[in-house]
Amino acid sequence: MVRGEAPLGRPIVIGAGMGRLATRGHIEGTAMSNENDRAKRLLTLDEEIAAKIEADLKAGVLSKVPGFGKPLAADTGYEQTPEEWRMAFKILKNAGFAPTEVELMKARAALQDERRACKDPSQCKALDDQIQDLSLRISFRMDRFKSYR
Questions:
Q1: Together in a domain, 142 and 94
Q2: 19 falls in which pLDDT band (50, 70, 90)?
Q3: Does residue 113 fall inside a structural domain?
């Protein structure tokens, strides 16, 4: 490969054995052209998605989807979660993981269901103690979030 400085507009060899010459402007223009092509591809992808959605709307495919035309239901607990934690919790939720507080709440709900079905007073008392203990642990953990507000 030949390298060297050439005045603008004069040809420079860009590769030995390639059989072609290019000017600096051509090389820079190619780089700019590649960036523009990439942007057009992304724009084209967006347009393609919009066209597919529009076609499905016209064909009536989307109107058969449950909840079509209705606002999305708010995620429970979203507003109570501090703003700076929401994205992290959403990522964990989408990955199938739940914060410790959620696991504790599920355990408390299971104990409460068991308590409702309980008939033995001593067992009911033990379940009440466990529910109270879990409620306190949840409360202490949730107080962490209040300090961020």
A1: yes
A2: very low
A3: yes
